Protein: Methyltransferase
Organism: Mesorhizobium australicum
Amino acid sequence: MSDPVERLLKETIGLDTASVGPTVVRQSVRERMTACGITDPETYWRLLTGSPQELQELINAVVVPETWFFRDREAFTALAQHARMHKRANQPIKILSLPCSTGEEPYSVAMAMFDAGFGAQEFKIDAVDISTRNLAIAERAVYGRNSFRGSYLEFKDRYFEPAQGGHQVNPAVLKQVRFRAGNLFDSRTSFGAEVYDVLLCRNLLIYFDRELQDRALVSLKALLASDGLLLVGPAESALPRLHGFTSAEWPMAFAFLKSGTVQVVAQTVPVSNSTLPPSVPKPLKSKIVPPVGRQGHLQTTAQMLDQITESLATIERIANAGRVKEAQEVALSHLRQFGPSAEIFYLLGLAQDAEGAAPEAVQNYRKALYLAPNHREALAHLALLLRKQGDHHGAEALTGRLGRIQTRSGT
Ligand SMILES: C[S@@+](CC[C@H](N)C(=O)[O-])C[C@H]1O[C@@H](n2cnc3c(N)ncnc32)[C@H](O)[C@@H]1O
């Protein structure tokens, strides 16, 4: 029964069952059959293929809505910087969040744009997702603690009001975002002739196979202005280069320019009055405590820590540019020169993940977690990879661990 359903889902929304595991599809089908009061798979198949409404319900049940505010925070700094450099007089910057899931991403964009000094008339955000269930949550705009992760949460006090069941996005931010249902694979029906200055397509391509990733990139390119910026997810950073995009050279933003000219946005002044703290590299200095000793010894240790930090930043830049093979080579030589650390194993895993070398990536994420059991990014990426490999039990255990870390740290 699930094979034709898997095929239908792939044809409709591009979902590669292997990326979520066949159990997820089977569970979603069971959930929908129960909701419809149907026990016979054939009867459900007839309903599914005859009713666009039921197909939508199954899509709502099967998609992965995982998202949170300021996910991969540097993307938002890069976006605001790009917007500032490309703002045309009397024309708002047009931004598309596709997929927007439950709304955390487009609302983060609005907050970042306000923080960068843009007025309400100076930018517009369209937010699109295939899941009508996610869009309903986005429009309600009330969020619980799972949407606020990590230590950068200062925006919460400024842009949210306490509400029943969590915190509600304030009206000024709400007004900037226009939500609608749409399918990336039906982009001209969903978007008409619209062209955007910035396009966020993050953590969706990972659910497609290679052929559909290519089709998706073609659609995304057509939706982007010639000097536009594309932001993808960390494990998707190898793809834009295959379609002629150029890295924007912004560490950990996974940002790519449609035109061939590199604008080196990362080296310009950070967003004005930005509430976004300075970017990576995360200081290893806090983890490596220099031995107390003679002055000269301390100085040498400090110099070495600077070298390590610089080397990690270089690897991030290379990985971020989508040169994932080269990133792995440099990471391995970093490992030989400076020895093991959670950060280097995480970066190595990330580059392998982006290249599709899942078993190697799993190993390195695990090594990162061995050295730093609370490394949130490693936990999140490993959970996603395990889920893709069908290890749902393992993925759930990691997600639970992430949740407990958040509860303990109050974030
Ligand atoms: C993991 S979320 C990513 C959300 C957000 N971009 C982020 O990175 O946090 C993936 C979203 O993609 C949506 N989706 C899946 N297939 C889609 C398609 N073909 N077109 C549009 N949205 C799709 C799902 O409904 C889900 O909300």
The chain is about 55% helix and 10% strand. The pocket of S-adenosylmethionine is lined by residues 13-14, 63-67, 71, 99, 101, 105, 129-131, 134, 183-185, 202-204, 233 (CB under 6 Å). The first helix runs from residue 2 to 13. Residues 261-298 have pLDDT under 50 and may be disordered.
